[in-house]
Amino acid sequence: MTQDYNPAGEGAQMNFDGRMSYSDYLGLDKILNAQKPLSHAHDELLFIIQHQTSELWMNLAIHELTAARLLIAADDPAPAMKMLARVSRIFEQLNNAWDVLRTMTPSDYTNFRTQLGQSSGFQSLQYRQIEYILGNRNAAMLQPHSHRPELLQKLEAELAIPSFYDEVLRLAHRRGVKMPDAVLARDVRQTHQFSEEVMAAWAQIYKAPEKNWQLYEVAEKLVDLEDYFRRWRFNHVTTVERVIGFKRGTGGTGGVSYLKRMLEVELFPELWRVRTAL
């Protein structure tokens, strides 16, 4: 019989008394004890972990988007490309997570749905931050956070600065691709609205990408990101419809009807419509 392998023989640390361990570094005691099901339903743990891990991934997405926006504003878009690519992969990860949640049947969910009370995913602070960063600046969505002044302040601070797309349009203008004054000087607290002039500016870039390669690359990275973001929204809709049908959401929204309305939101409208104009 082969003797059991002991990694200590090759110098592996086996005693962590007074030393930082894997669990210590990652704070696993807190993370793995953060699941507090309120029922005895088997699938409630799945539901909690699905949403907790999604919030962790969104935390990373915010970290990457914030850093990338600062680079764009500082006329240094090259390193931001890796960050934007990472955010797209994060949303791919979030998309894959719906496949796990869809293993929960309507019967499974009804066993603990009442335990959710009025809580709902549309109340996610981090999801709202991501939307605000990317430019969907619906001020009405501040209200679900008004009971927490520190959270409201965080969202208000985001609305006070240019969105990611605002900074990209300003970058293009600085690089010699003229953007309309009305767009550059607009109230950044509001959601950007489609502009024919902005689309014409992007058309210049797409017709001769070699002249403005970095702007072309930024544009395609944004399209890639929104592509994954749209898939995430679509998978959200289909998962909810599969599990609760057309019931109202726990937070009082129309459920599927509310989520389908969100599918119509365009974050970077000119980048999508310029394809028709080419």
List keywords for this structure.
Methane Monooxygenase Hydroxylase, Chain G, domain 1, 278 residues, globular, mainly alpha
Structural overview:
- The protein has 278 residues and is an all-alpha fold.
- It has a single domain, classed as Methane Monooxygenase Hydroxylase, Chain G, domain 1, CATH 1.20.58.
- The protein has 13 helices and no strands.
- The chain has helices at residues 22-26, 28-32, 44-73, 78-101, 106-110, 125-134, 149-159, 164-174, 181-184, 196-207, 213-244, 256-262, 269-277.
- Helix 6 runs parallel beside helix 7 (149-159) and helix 11 (213-244) runs antiparallel to helix 12.
- The longest helix is centred in the last third of the chain and has 32 residues, at 213-244.
Write the layout of secondary structure elements.
Layout: H1 22-26, H2 28-32, H3 44-73, H4 78-101, H5 106-110, H6 125-134, H7 149-159, H8 164-174, H9 181-184, H10 196-207, H11 213-244, H12 256-262, H13 269-277
Helix pairs in contact: 3-4, 3-6, 3-8, 4-11, 6-7, 10-13, 11-12
